Amino acid sequence: MATGQLFSKTTQALFYNYKQLPIQRMLDFDFLCGRETPSVAGIINPGAEGFQKLFFGQEEIAIPVHSTIEAACAAHPTADVFINFASFRSAAASSMSALKQPTIKVVAIIAEGVPEADTKQLIAYARSNNKVVIGPATVGGIQAGAFKIGDTAGTIDNIIHCKLYRPGSVGFVSKSGGMSNELYNSIARVTDGIYEGIAIGGDVFPGSTLSDHVLRFNNIPQVKMIVVLGELGGRDEYSLVEALKQGKINKPVVAWVSGTCARLFKSEVQFGHAGAKSGGEMESAQAKNQALRDTGAVVPTSYEAFESSIKETFDKLIEDGKITPVKEVTPPQIPEDLNTAIKSGKVRAPTHIISTISDDRGEEPCYAGVPMSSIVEQGFGVGDVISLLWFKRSLPRYCSRFIEICIMLCADHGPCVSGAHNTIVTARAGKDLVSSLVSGLLTIGPRFGGAIDDAARYLKDAYDRNLTPYEFVEGMKKKGIRVPGIGHRIKRGDNRDKRVELLQRYARENFPSVKYMEYAVQVETYTLSKANNLVLNVDGAIGSLFLDLLAGSGMFTKQEIDEIVEIGYLNGLFVLARSIGLIGHTFDQKRLKQPLYRHPWEDVLYTK
Amino acid sequence: MARKKIREYDSKRLLKQHLKRLAGFDLQICSAQVNESTDFTELTNKEPWLSSTRLVVKPDMLFGKRGKSGLVALNLDLAQVAEFVKARLSVEVEMGGCKAPITTFIVEPFVPHDQEYYLSIVSERLGSTVSFSECGGIEIEENWDKVKTIFLPTEKPMTLEACAPLIATLALEVRGKIGDFIMGVFSVFQDLDFSFLEMNPFTLVNEEPYPLDMRGELDDTAAFKNFKKWGEIEFPLPFGRVLSPTENFIHTLDEKTSASLKFTVLNPKGRIWTMVAVEVGDLGYASELGNYAEYSGAPNEEEVLQYARVVIDCATANPDGRKRALLIGGGIANFTDVAATFNGIVQALREKESKLKAARMHIYVRRGGPNYQIGLAKMRALGEELGVPLEVYGPEATMTGICKEAIECIMSTA
């Protein structure tokens, strides 16, 4: 592998499998380093296309999203780094696909759990095609002041603290991402900082090895010393030992292989990384540390002394005049994200919407505070759910049962009424369910279906104002308004509507009070004296009994009842109920595969 | 993660099944697995050869050098095998410094033979190493200079030319068969994601290759691809490792999450306990270290809570009146949300307040990473609330510095 720099201040990368946080962190780092362009040129999200909005400094930018690797590479030919955040199941395939793209040179694989055989294929391909794989199972790497991979080095605070926004003189490579962050801090304390840091990942077969990167650092003039953090298990460090022996490395190397406490337990213990399986004398940390020491690397006696070894080596380089002092810069301020500021209490932002009837934020959704599981476990019905979502309270069973009866009675009224007719015509026009349903619902209003609501309103007004039935009916007549709730095409005084009777019976048996209904009956008695078909119809029955439900339950204040009637809750009940029928008619027409409806000419009066 | 040893029984089962599928080769081996719950009549119904052939019985416990340890019996009949097994099941033996009971045996036909060949395949970073010798068997290590090895790079296919150097010195009559066998085994090795496979020895029965002893390791990260091919595969813990209930609990947690949660009890009576990987051994107090631990990769609050509960329970399990130390936190996280994970720890500490006090626990927290200031502040507040000594440090301190403090604390006589 060898050669030198992989990244620069103008490196462009493609990001595979969209994840907001690591990309935003990369962009924040770009801005911090004073890069002119963000390092992420394009995002690949299989099955999606479009743009993702992210911040570059204060400005929001839109980064294109492609659904395939090929498309992304074609759209961004100068992007030569591929950062792969795919899960372990698809990481190998997507990485190989990326490596095969002529425009891609470096592939970083974040996922842990890539099968070894797949990694070996990636390694072999990269070797024969002069490409570089970093990972799998890695957080990535960073070139100070130039480019960083994903979540490497963590938050902006940490990056500023470690001065990673400008290049230093130390090349660092380790297996562990967590520990590399620790070392960036150490190195920033005792040297002029990192030039480049790579975490090769914790897998048994890393895409590129510790010595691969050490040899590469050796060829980068700005790197004056190299720090290596190894781990017990595997023999990667021995290739470094070999390189040192052969005199291939002409910069000081400070190294430590961690995992010395593995000696303490005899039986195999699983360390965090697949690669750190303890077992085999040569693979022990002690053996590797000694071998490195023997070939000229600076190896401290313990991890605790690592920082001072690094310091000593760096100080010596200064003495020997090998270090040019770093030009310190003040990095720009990165604005904080709104949601972090809100979380930490620094800012408060007003909401734009208020909602009070249901809450989906918790363990399970709640209707008016009642959790879904209670609703099911306690055998609630549709009427109870309506009582929670419309009235925001748990009405007594007789009320919710009444609501259910109303829904059942109003569910449909045959194919000829306006709503059903519209729905049938729309369905026969080949339209979808929702269009057919809505088409029917749109006829609901003052002349169709709205009578329940009107009946309740007028009856309430009349009753509350203590009007006699005579005064009420004549008053309406004077205004030219038909009394809603009264009248039927077929039903007569001696052939009542069964539905009305059922409702009245239910109410008499279950409601504590039926005063509004009784008033309606008095009104009916009067209207029947005028014509035999002026019976109390279903709309009137439901309207009046609904008022009784509200008034008699003792659960509503007068204001609430007034408001309910004014807003038109009963309308809602009719719309809800009739939707059942309209949907039924839609399915019916679709089953019957009826053709487009055209109204017969004969049935139309054409006139000027 | 990664390379896991499998029992000889499973290695042979996989080899037989897939050698047939991939190379059309009908391996004549048979094996039966015997453990405490084995019903010999049922077993013989499934494997009738058990009652009609002389048998060999060996422990199948992921350790080698069985012949040299006297745990193998040859040329028995089924009744003798049953007796042999009964006397040794659940009896503790010591192998390589590890003590544990034998739980599983493998029973096979006794095959008298002369030739013992050695074959091994090892997966390595740039390819695979295939080794072969005509002097296999119990003395293989003494005859290691006779082993021939080839290295097959990943991108090169296994061919007769590639393995020619291994079999060149074989007599012509057997060379072809053995060459084909090696190629067949190699294809099984690759197709099933073995990371290691060794036959020491295999022999020829009726001129067909016949593995006698076999070891295998599978790459368990390939499970999602291979679970059908592997069938009911077992990845036993290495010999001598028995997971305590708490370790088992953490292990199951770890399997379910994409984060990494590791916990191993080292010394149940130790006085330094940790939720972070530390090198206490370096500082010379390894004997007091109660456990090895690690949590990384952004575990969620619930996972951290359960993890913390377990560690605290173990740490406070054996109060002896002396001071103890609990180390929390660790490095400077890249993306684990410190405030969120600390919520879980804070809750666990709160729950176990009395246990902590009874064990004279001193808590040391050191952490950096996203939202660490909020996390540390919570810890500080908690220390005051519980009245448990709690020191809190950010990335300006070092983990080793904290370890030192902890050691000084427990070592002081006050």
TrEMBL record, chain A:
Q: Known CDD domains for this protein?
A: CCL_ACL-C
* PANTHER family registered for this protein in UniProt: ATP-CITRATE SYNTHASE
Q: Can the keyword Lipid biosynthesis be found in this entry's annotation?
A: yes
Q: Please state where this protein is localized.
A: Cytoplasm
Write the Enzyme Commission number(s) for this entry. 2.3.3.8
Give the lineage. Eukaryota, Viridiplantae, Streptophyta, Embryophyta, Tracheophyta
Question: GO molecular function, one example?
Answer: metal ion binding
**Source organism (scientific name):** Cinchona calisaya
Primary subcellular site in the record, as a coarse category = cytoplasm
A GO BP term, please?
lipid metabolic process
From which residue to which does any coiled coil extend?
none
Q: Which UniProt keywords apply?
A: ATP-binding, Cytoplasm, Lipid biosynthesis, Lipid metabolism, Magnesium, Metal-binding, Nucleotide-binding, Transferase
The protein in question is named: ATP citrate synthase
Q: Does the keyword section mention ATP-binding?
A: yes
InterPro entries from the UniProt entry:
Cit_synth/succinyl-CoA_lig_AS, Citrate_synth-like_sm_a-sub, Citrate_synthase, Citrate_synthase_sf, Citrt_syn/SCS-alpha_CS, NAD(P)-bd_dom_sf, Succ-CoA_synthase_bsu_CS, SUCC_ACL_C
Where in this chain does the record put each ATP-citrate synthase/succinyl-CoA ligase C-terminal domain?
A: 173-298
UniProtKB/TrEMBL annotation, chain B:
Single GO term (MF): ATP binding
Q: Which SUPFAM superfamilies match?
A: Glutathione synthetase ATP-binding domain-like, Succinyl-CoA synthetase domains
Q: What are the residue boundaries of the ATP-citrate synthase citrate-binding domain, all occurrences included? A: 241-408
Uppermost EC category: transferase
**All residue ranges annotated as the ATP-citrate synthase ATP-grasp domain in the record:** 2-230
Q: What is the catalytic activity of this protein?
A: oxaloacetate + acetyl-CoA + ADP + phosphate = citrate + ATP + CoA
Q: Name one GO biological process term.
A: acetyl-CoA biosynthetic process
Compartments reported by the entry: Cytoplasm, Cytosol
Keyword Translocase among record annotations: no
Q: Which UniProt keywords apply?
A: Acyltransferase, ATP-binding, Cytoplasm, Lipid biosynthesis, Lipid metabolism, Nucleotide-binding, Transferase
Would you tell me the Gene Ontology cellular component terms?
Answer: cytosol
List its EC numbers.
2.3.3.8
Which Pfam families does the annotation name?
Citrate_bind, Citrate_synth_N
Its annotated function is as follows: ATP citrate-lyase is the primary enzyme responsible for the synthesis of cytosolic acetyl-CoA, used for the elongation of fatty acids and biosynthesis of isoprenoids, flavonoids and malonated derivatives. May supply substrate to the cytosolic acetyl-CoA carboxylase, which generates the malonyl-CoA used for the synthesis of a multitude of compounds, including very long chain fatty acids and flavonoids. Required for normal growth and development and elongation of C18 fatty acids to C20 to C24 fatty acids in seeds.
Describe the family membership recorded for this protein in Swiss-Prot or TrEMBL.
Belongs to the succinate/malate CoA ligase beta subunit family.
Assembly and binders: Heterooctamer of 4 alpha and 4 beta chains.
Q: What is this protein called?
A: ATP citrate synthase
Source organism (scientific name): Cinchona calisaya
